[in-house]
Design goal:
By secondary structure, the protein is of the alpha+beta class. It is built from 16 helices and eleven strands. The chain has helices spanning about 5-15, 20-30, 35-45, 65-70, 75-80, 90-95, 100-110, 135-145, 155-160, 195-200, 225-240, 255-260, 290-300, 315-320, 330-340, 385-400, and strands at about 20, 50-60, 90, 115, 125, 165-175, 245, 250-255, 320-325, 350-355, 370-380. The chain has a three-stranded antiparallel beta sheet with strand order 1-6-2. A three-stranded antiparallel beta sheet has the order 3-5-4. A three-stranded mixed beta sheet has the order 7-10-11, sandwiched between helices. It is elongated, with a radius of gyration of 48 Å.
């Protein structure tokens, strides 16, 4: 029977009386009590159709052992029926009858059997009466038929001690008519649809009131951008490998640190406006380390430290121009300069992960900014093997088991 059909029958029953109880309704409709409760709660969602209150009553019901007694008879009746006319030994009786100890005690108490302890071969149990009436089974049947009130309380207490009965609290719903009671069920609409507006049917519809106190669906949020996830993963790998993160918070850099300190000639095409974003305000930088600037100028102009230089007239005006850094290597140049100023050299490992800017033509795969990952290792007796080992370890921690093959030729431009 569908829940809605049950709800309609509840309304019909309530129309013919002042009130109904869910337990009585379940008995009348021969339906499960929980289904009746569910139907009543669905009727509560309708505006003032019914009113109901919860009630609790104590009720006696049979235990599993009590149900077995109801079906097969009491323990004492089983003992009596197991005793033949000529009797049976007490030991054998205890073996063949379930719950024989309790049953024998109650059968003796009821005067149904007697025990003769003078017999050869041990005590013998004999019938004392020809027939019996199993009052325990009869009483349990009365209680099963929901007529426990007709049974003496002393008897119910005794059966409870024998684990044949248990007292339970049964909750039911007491239903009365509401101020808008009617026997037809019209479920209120929850949504105003385009079809209702187009046809005008919304005018005759009844809509469910909004519950402004109800908790809404928690919006999802707080997700990390995929780029930030990758950046965090790379950063943790560098930190695990003993690297120190360089400060990369200066997006605006001077041409001196971005190009000249890295020995990129001032006439290089990458330093043109079509490849680099130059800053108009402030347009120039000052306060460069004077001695270091002179050494940079000398190497560019005439060479030094094994280099023959670029053989051109290096100009401080070009070095002063501000720009949006084109690589984070400008930060590496600053850090290496700072390391060189220390009284005593100590090996260092630096890394940076941050954005850089190029004057690129924007399309589906190119932006004017991107992120660069950079690492710098300063130490004694470093070789290409050290670089290969660092790269292998980095990708191993990243989860890529790769074999790194590095081919080096004299014509390749490699920064180590």
């Amino acid at each position: 029977m569908a829940a809605m059909n049950i709800a309609e029958q509840i309304l019909l029953l309530l129309a013919g009386s002042d009130a109904v109880d869910s337990l009585n309704v379940a008995e009348i409709l021969k339906s499960d009590h929980q289904r009746v409760v569910g139907a009543i709660k669905s009727l509560q969602t309708l505006d003032n159709v019914i009113c109901c209150e919860q009630r609790s009553v104590k009720q006696w019901e049979l235990t599993d052992e009590g149900k077995a007694v109801l079906e097969k008879g009491s323990h004492e009746a089983a003992v009596f029926n197991a005793v033949p006319v000529h009797g049976i030994s007490h030991a054998q009786l205890m073996k063949i009858v379930p719950n024989a100890k309790v049953g024998f005690s109650k059968a003796m108490q009821s005067g149904w059997v007697v025990i003769d302890k003078t017999c050869d071969g041990g005590p013998k149990v004999m019938r004392k009466v020809a027939t019996i009436e199993d009052t325990v089974q009869q009483t349990l049947r009365i209680i099963q038929d929901l007529s426990a009130n007709s049974v003496n309380d002393k008897v119910k207490t005794e059966y409870k001690k024998r684990n044949l009965l248990q007292e339970v609290v049964v909750k039911s719903l007491y239903v009365t008519k509401g101020s808008a009671f009617h026997t037809s069920i019209e479920k209120p609409e929850t949504d105003l649809t385009p079809e209702m507006i187009a046809s005008g049917s919304w005018k005759s519809k009844k809509f469910k009131e909004y519950n402004f106190d109800a908790m809404g669906v928690t919006p999802s949020g707080g997700h990390l951008h995929p780029l930030l996830k990758v950046r965090t993963q790379f950063r943790n790998i560098f930190l695990e490998m003993g690297f120190t993160e360089m400060p990369t918070n200066n997006y605006v850099e001077s041409s001196f640190w971005n190009f000249d300190a890295l020995f990129q000639p001032q006439q290089h095409p990458a330093r043109d406006a079509h490849d680099t974003f130059f800053v108009s305000e402030p347009a120039l930088s000052e306060n460069f380390p004077a001695a270091y600037l002179e050494r940079i100028k000398k190497v560019h102009s005439v060479g030094g430290y094994g280099s023959q230089g670029y053989k051109y007239d290096w100009k401080i005006e070009e070095a002063k121009k501000n720009l949006l850094r084109t690589h984070t290597t400008a930060v590496s140049a600053r850090m290496l300069y700072m390391v060189a100023q220390e009284p005593e050299f100590h090996p260092r490992k630096y890394f940076s992960i941050d954005r850089v800017f190029r004057n690129e033509t924007l399309d589906a795969t190119h932006l004017a900014e991107f992120h660069q990952i950079e690492g710098v290792v300063a130490g004694y007796n470093l070789t290409l093997g050290n670089l290969m080992g660092i790269l292998r370890e980095f990708f191993r921690k990243l989860g890529n088991a790769i074999t790194l093959d590095v081919n080096v030729s004299m014509s390749s431009k490699t920064w180590v």
